[in-house]
Amino acid sequence: MSDPRYPIGKVQLTGALSVGDRADAIRRIAALPDALHAAVRGLDATQLATPYRAGGWTLRQVVHHIADSHVNSYVRHKLTITEANPPIKNYDENAWASLADANGPIGGSLLLITAIHDRWAQCLRSLAPKDFARTCEHSVAGPMTLDDLVALYAWHGEHHVAHITTFRRSRGW
Q: Rounded distance, CA 139 to CA 38, Å?
């Protein structure tokens, strides 16, 4: 791996997803909680306090970041589904990662991720194919479709799980 920031590579948004690619992305969103639980299983407090790369977040912060990010994403998805081209605000991930709740026990974030992903996948599976063309206006990325959001967050969860699993393998944990 040449860049530990991107253990599975950078996200590639390709536009409208095929029915099969969309179903796979939704399956990956639904599968994230189990993958994350497996990735952190058995880690002790010292291991969770270890950054996955020089200058990077600790493994604990990565877990909390997934919760923070995916709560925001779930809301972004629902706004995109229910409103006409809603504005989607960016947030300062590093500032959130420095807060006390991003440096405490991970159990609450694991529970939150499980609950959010269950509802999120249920919602996405209920939509008609035409709904995935709905748009939002991201404050940094610009216009995005629901298909873009689905593809992005299928990648995002796997990206951060890979931070943990790749680092664990490198340490023999």
A: 34
Token duo for residue 108: 């609450």
- Measured CA to CA in angstroms, residue 132 lies from 80, 81, 103, 106 at distances of 9, 8, 36, 33
Element (H, E) at 144: strand 142-145
Select from 32, 27, 21 the least CA-distant residue to 129.
21
Task: Find out if CATH 1.10.10.10 is the number for domain 19-171.
Answer: no
Residue with the two structure tokens 């300062």? 92
CB 162 within 8 A of CB 17: no
- Condensed to tens digits (0 to 9), the pLDDT of residues 87-138 reads 999 999 999 999 999 999 999 999 999 999 999 999 999 999 999 999 999 9
> Which residues are paired to 137 by β-bridges?
87, 143
The predicted model scores a pTM of: 0.97
The whole-angstrom separation of Cα 65 and Cα 11 is 17
- Tell me which residue of 148, 157, 6, 167 sits closest to 68, measured CA to CA: 157
Map out the domains of the chain as residue ranges: 19-171
